[in-house]
Amino acid sequence: MAVRIEDQTIYLGVRDLLQPVYRQQMLSSFPLPQRGMLGREAQTRVQKQKERRFGLFHSEYAVSRSYAYEGYTFHIYGRIDGVYNLKNRVEIEEIKSVILQAVEFRRLKIEQYPEFIEQVLFYAYLLQDELQGKEVAAYLVLVNLINDARRTFPVDYNRLQVERLLFRRFAHILANLQREQQERLRREDELKKIRFTLPEKRPQQKKMMRAVASSVEQKRHLLVSAPTGTGKTAAALFPAIQYAYSRGKKLFFVTSKTTQQAIVQETMYPLLEQGLDFHTVYLRAAEKMCANKVFFCHEAFCPYIADYRDRFLQSNLQAELEAHTALLPDRIYDAAAAHTLCPFEVSLDMSLSADLIIGDYNYVFDPGVYLRRLFARKDYSDWILIIDEAHNLYDRGMGYLSPEIRREQVQNLIGLYEDKETKVYQKLLQGLKEIMRLLDSLELEGDIHFAGQQYFKVELNTRQWEEAFLLYEAAFVRYLIHNVKKRIVLMEDPAEKLYYVLRRFVQIARLKERAFVPFYDAAGILKIQCCDPSDYLGRRMEGFHSVIAMSATLDPMPFYLDVLGFNAERSDVLQLDSPFPAENRKIIIVPGVSTRYKDRMQNYPKIAEIIKNTVRQRKGNYLVFFPSYDFVQNVNLFLGDLNQKKILQKPSMKEEDREQVLLELKRGNEPVLLLAVMGGIFSEGIDYSGDMAIGVIVVSPALPKISYERELLREYYDEKQDQGMEYAYIYPGMNKVIQAVGRLIRSATDKGVVLLIGERFARDEYNLLLPDYWLHGSGDVEITNEYKEAIRSFWNRLDNT
Length: 801
Ligand code: SF4
Description:
Elements: E1 2-4, E2 9-13, H1 32-53, E3 57-69, E4 72-85, E5 89-98, H2 102-107, H3 114-130, E6 135-144, E7 150-155, H4 159-193, H5 203-217, E8 221-225, H6 232-247, E9 250-255, H7 258-273, E10 280-282, H8 286-289, H9 308-314, H10 317-322, E11 326-327, H11 329-338, H12 343-352, E12 356-360, H13 362-365, H14 372-375, E13 383-387, H15 393-400, E14 404-406, H16 407-417, H17 423-440, E15 445-450, E16 453-457, H18 462-485, H19 494-509, E17 516-521, E18 525-530, H20 534-542, E19 546-551, H21 557-563, E20 571-575, E21 585-590, H22 597-617, E22 622-626, H23 629-636, E23 645-648, H24 655-667, E24 672-677, E25 695-699, H25 708-721, H26 724-741, E26 752-757, H27 764-767, E27 781-783, H28 787-799
Parallel strand pairs: 2-4, 5-6, 8-19, 8-20, 9-12, 9-13, 10-11, 10-12, 13-19, 21-26, 21-27, 22-24, 22-25, 23-24, 25-26
Antiparallel strand pairs: 1-2, 3-4, 4-5, 6-7, 14-18, 15-16, 16-17, 17-18
Helix pairs in contact: 3-4, 4-6, 5-6, 11-12, 16-17, 17-18, 18-19, 22-23, 22-28, 25-26
């Protein structure tokens, strides 16, 4: 439903007019997402049959009418499943699916489904108006998914009664709108009592707050590069909350790492403590919210999801949770588990009534797992989106849109079903063999080698892939029904996994744009590489009231505006200076070492030497960031004689391990040298305040590893705008460098040195990407191989001031 206050118009679908029904349903035994798919498939099947048999049958008949009520215009729209337009009258049919045992289906009375009845009656009313009074007869067709049985029920249509019902619903909607209006006024008063106090008032933070306030006020987007220490979380949240709170808007705060969510929690805490009535829901991944013994979301395996919808509605859990303004995952988990309801589903349900949702990027952008409860409504213009550490969205976006099919996966399934004679498996087999045939008949072009792997370019025949998918889908639906009838439940069902893989693959294959490049990896993988997610990301973002994208660095801004898909006409950018005194840190570029791949081996000892010489100048903790784990290991081999405790980041390290390392750095018992990778858990979104670090050494720009996929990006952007190297390698690589350097100075009193090791840092392509606020005074960034002298004089100066 959408309301346009300016001209008092309310747009609503017929479904928005229906009363929710709390009805005990039979256990369905279908995994939840597949229930909808099976229903749609049954409906389409019935529609097609009827179209074939009855020439007068029109499926998906669009209808829309407008009605005046109490000074408002109600514009109602919908699609009738089937319409027979006869000479003197019309007959309409709504097709619904149920899941019942055969005997129950035979006995059912249509009164058990009042919401279906209302829906068909409203359609009859709208259509009669459209056809100017022609007689209308309404029917409900119920299909039982268990046995394909079908029953048709005539529904009594009395125009006057339906009209009364319709106008009662209008009155109800208007009453709700008025209540919302009063609530808004109350909130405006409430807001005056809340102190939005910033811990440290910094001019950069104030500047950002003004920019955010103006963006949300004018429904514009904003990209903010806010260096470490700006306090960007509060600067984005406070004005957005002030706007949203009194205007009935809502916020969605997305992050790429869970640690950033802890900062949001800390920022919100003082506001909620003062009584700000702003309901906040934190979303945590399903696996981590699972209360069942095994993570398998199926009614037959999980009591927490069996009859979930009805049990949730009948419980008082929603009211119980709504009594809290901050719904942290643990709180939701405990309350949901106590009712034997799935904690993850409860968190999603609670998010619908929340004022602020905090969660991973996936809930907004991943086409496979985005929050359907919100985005399926299409209109989410009441929501303001805040994207934290937005530079990460470029890679994430490409990942979402780069599907792959593994030959081995298809082959294994064929092996599994080959000996089964049941028809249902034979049908699956047909679909699988067609997919294998398409894989076998790919025309491979070129012969490209990267890191010992062989790749080929391919042309996809989209029509053939779609047909193969439809063949497999039809067989898969039969297979699901077969499993329900036979009460077969498979955990980790490979047929189901392949279904979702294929569906994503075909969806992306349809996007025939240049940005999606299909290729074949000789290891047996057919992949579509997305080189440019901007179109997809931009479309999602355009639906929001405003989008605030922020990061410690979004340099260069035009690059991020472009690849994240911001609508340039509706977007502003803000580049802030560091809030901390430049004289508290010294940045030195050491150009005398090549860190290029081909030269690395011979330069490991030299790099180790520079690290040792830096550390020896002043006792304390140092952070050294490398572009890869290999690099960490190899340089470490030459750090043996260093009189300092070393901690090496390993690929397996998780957030819990990071906490341990941070404790070690904080304790300060003995100085620590942390060797870590750029773009990892130690180089972004983390505070090393005070003496936790007195030096940061960055070894080489963190250029993404050369791979066939990256080379496709380079080709694409070369062709598009002659900036292949920059878009594929340099910009993302330098962003990681600037993020890593930002770990050093976290407060006005922090002091330390930064070394950038590598000749590329001195070259224009890289050097010009260093943030302006690094270069305020002459000598702020020194390019010298006499780094020891430069470090010594920096510490001496600080000691003498
Ligand atoms: S508790 Fe929820 S997440 Fe866990 S298996 Fe059941 S439905 Fe899935």
